[in-house]
From TrEMBL:
GO terms for biological process: neuropeptide signaling pathway. This is G-protein coupled receptors family 1 profile domain-containing protein. It holds the Pfam family 7tm_1. It is a multi-pass membrane protein.
Amino acid sequence: MRLYTFSNECNISNTSVELSAETRGTYIFLATTSPIAVLMNMFALIVLTRRRAIRLGSMRVNLITLTVFEILLNLNILGVMFSKFSGLSEKRTTLAVVLDVIMFCLLSWALFARNWIITLIALARCVAITRPMRTRLMSTHLFRPKSLAFCTITCLIVGFTFSALRMFELHIVVCDNLDQRLQLLPSGGLQGLVDTHFFFQSAIPITIVFITTLIMLIALYRARTLVLDDSPKERGDSRISVTANRLRYTSGARQTHLCAEKQMNYRRTQNQLRATRMITLLAAIFIILEAPIFFCVILKKYFDPVFFNFVTTALKALVVMDSCANVIIYLFMSKRFRQESARLWHKLTIRNRPFSVTQTEVVM
């Protein structure tokens, strides 16, 4: 299939001008909030990649990958808004068309990767909360670090392949009657590819995240799967034969050991609860902000094409809001993320302090 054709019957459409007038407020909102989302996610990426951030746990690598694709996603949205405001998208030169195709593919890939990374994080947390550590072997754990990394890389490759294939969804028309201007038109016969891409990009992730969120909410409500077994057999309360001289020492040592074990189990349970609350909130926000996009694509045939373009542009705002919400959730729900953020801020302020002191001394 050819990516471009020549035509002498091209017409200048006023659709873009009408859309620009109708969606001006949406464009301004996206152009204002997408840089904020980029800065917030860059801050989160710096915190997550710090040396002490390894204390954030096994989800740290996936959170870093998620943050990287959130940055890529918002940068593409910002690029689309810049193209709209600068008028580059209206000129339809070769550079403009190439940039449109590249941003279209990168936006699709970033959205695909973001959805599946959140899905894998929710699945891993669901397995961790429904199968306590004492009842599962790490070697048989489906989402141990190596398996989770393999699943993440597989999702990235599949998403990139689908996004590259979507290049054929846009057909380039070279207009000979308009001084070789280029137009991007949807090509027919690829509806199966579009439906398959949507099925893997949105339908499957939303369904999986919805189910895992329900399971995590039930587990948090009941608070049974996170409570470690405190029976006498698990604690090692079997009778020990001791002499009278060693009775006092043995009972004191056992009491100290049991207190230390209880304290360790309590801390572990609290860490599991905090991690589950954070992942549950991430998944819930993802479902709330992704569901309108899901239903919009399903009901596409009931929308007017011009109105559908307006709706899809407005729904990009939900993607930006989701990116900002993730960083806010990290700050409020993760104590260790707050600690690393405070250390980073303290380090930056200490670096700037000597310069301000010497400058004051010079003035005096």
